[in-house]
Amino acid sequence: MIKIENLSKSYGEKVIFKDLSMSLENGEILAVLGPSGIGKTTFIKTLTGLEEAQSGTVNLDGKELQVGDSELTAKIGLIFQDFNLFPHLTVKKNITLAPVLTKTMSEEEAAAKADSLLEKLGLSEQADLYPYQLSGGQKQRVGIARALAMNPQVIAYDEPTSGLDEKATKQVADVMLALKEEGVAQLVVTHDLPFAKDVADQTFDFEKEVKRS
């Protein structure tokens, strides 16, 4: 379970959001909805430590952590909107890089984990390809595999269907629903209402529910 409490972010005097609170259980998908430019991406970056929060705590499976704490950010896997894959590395190397660099796995363990994830996500044949050789949907699934390689407790997605066609969008939805069955908590920022309806157990309307003063 993840419970976010009183998360606030501002740039100088401009308040992006204030005292934002939400929670989701393990095996639950929460969709954060709202139009582009309203602060959804800033929220996800703040939660995962890429932006500095002015205040906020997260209770993760009974343990309270400050937003920005390295222990918290290590337990949240972030899937970027633009994938952020390393163009000079193969698909498999993109997945094994972080576990090896952080010394959470040996090279052999990371390779075995990557092979398992690639098979699970239907990407085994793409293991030795480079990102430029992949479709948008394949890149998104590689991003998911890369996040899963670090064994996160929560996965956060920033507009995971942006730029994807109907087939690729369904593939991403299928992956998320499979992870849900495995008990993974997932937080998805999106303006894609049909997609949110297909995958989410609950929704959070950023425009209506967020305070800015």
Automatic annotation (TrEMBL):
Keyword tags: ATP-binding, Nucleotide-binding, Transport
InterPro entries for this protein: AAA+_ATPase, ABC_transporter-like_ATP-bd, ABC_transporter-like_CS, P-loop_NTPase
GO molecular function terms listed in the Swiss-Prot or TrEMBL record: ATP binding
Hydrolase listed as a keyword: no
A Pfam match: ABC_tran
Occurrences of domain ABC transporter (ranges): 2-210
Gene3D superfamilies: P-loop containing nucleotide triphosphate hydrolases (3.40.50.300)
Ranges in a coiled coil: none
Keyword Protease among record annotations: no
Full protein name: Amino acid ABC transporter ATP-binding protein
Source organism (scientific name): Fructobacillus broussonetiae
